[in-house]
Amino acid sequence: MFRQLASASEVVRILLDKCEPVGRKELIPIAEARGRVISEDVVSPVDLPGFSRAAMDGYAVRAEETRGAGPLAPVYIGVGNVLGENTCVPIRTGAPIPDGADAVVMKEDVVLRGDHVEITAEVHPNRNLARVGEDAALGETVFWEGHRLRPPDIALLAAVGLRDVEAYQMPKVAIIPTGSELVPACSGRSLEPGQAYEINGLMAELYARAWGCSPVRAAIVEDDPGLIEEAIGSNLDADLILLIGGTSVGEMDHVPRVLSDLGELVVHGVRITPGKPTAAGFVGNVPVVCLPGYPVAALAALYLFARPLIMKLAHRRDELRRVKARLSRKIVSRPGYLSFARVTLKGDVAVPVMTSGAGILSSITRAQGYVLVPEEVEGIEAGDVVELTLVE
């Protein structure tokens, strides 16, 4: 039988309390740095721009010489190649501002009349120009340690002339699927009666990569305690081990006992549905999360337990997308259990797809996300507003 069942929040707390973010660092080309978390402050080595430049096509002027200009009271200024008193200079976007100029009059506000221009809009100092260091000043910290780089961030790094950036290494996640009945997915092998393709390891690998990790998926391990122990032992260089399958209480479910023999089994059985057989523990300092073999239960455990741990290891914040919607009909749940209810959206209405059926993967593919029904309530009534977490 299961040990005393733990709450989902207790499992997350245990895992997070005993783990620290990965401290290893590496220098990587900025072109490969999308989504990476920088491990030191990034300081601009130059002023950007390095010179004052025009932000518009038009005429570089001394702003004071346009004072009072308007459609009914235009100001006339001469046009030349050199800025001088009562003389402006034609300029294109991005071109350096000539000495003495402190603004640009837009081309739309000027009528050229021979060797003079008729200016119909007053400009103030620094109008329509980019000043030295406006984007980034020499010595300015443009990104702080812990920032996760996005494409525009990388473009700024390139703009100030940087080629590399120091980032935290991505956590290594070892994924070990277990089950004598499993056949490698996408192998081209036909299934015999009683067999199934190994899909949970594939799903876990894809999520681990999307969540900022470097996943390594092991070959399928048969339901043999010695082989499971050997697989765990050969992956203790990982920052996290995800074991899949073999977590229930049947005679072929060896994973929790093997984990207990090798290290510390801190949880076996969680008050969630689906996903009750989830287990977790540590071998040395390496956290081990044991996911149930049914795919929906495995997905629920991935989101509820593996993901928060991965986010901490990878120096990342919770960035799951959540929306609120009104329920079309009641969600029935099991009292005392956190229920992972699959829900789809139709406009601003949340329509329950399924609240049970741990092995029905299509219930997730038909859903856009899930609603967590708290342990202390018995379902959520039709018409109530719920928070829907979108499945990535």
Question: What features would you highlight for this structure?
Answer:
392 residues, alpha/beta, Molybdenum Cofactor Biosythetic Enzyme, Chain A, Molybdopterin biosynthesis moea protein, domain 2, Molybdopterin biosynthesis moeA protein, domain 3, 4 domains, 6-stranded mixed sheet, 7 helices, 26 strands, 18% helix
Give structural notes.
With about 400 residues, the protein is an alpha/beta fold. It folds into four domains: about 10-25 and about 170-315, 3-Layer(aba) Sandwich (Molybdenum Cofactor Biosythetic Enzyme, Chain A); about 25-50 and about 135-170, Molybdopterin biosynthesis moea protein, domain 2 (Alpha-Beta Complex), CATH 3.90.105.10; about 55-130, Beta Complex (Molybdopterin biosynthesis moeA protein, domain 3); about 320-390, Beta Barrel (Beta-clip). About 20% of the residues lie in helices and about 30% in strands. The chain contains seven helices and 26 strands. It has a six-stranded mixed beta sheet, with no helix packed on it. A six-stranded mixed beta sheet has the order 16-13-17-21-20-18, with helices on both faces. Helix 1 (about 10-15) packs parallel to helix 6 and helix 4 crosses helix 5. It starts with 7 loop residues before the first helix and ends with a strand. The model has no long low-confidence stretch (mean pLDDT about 95).
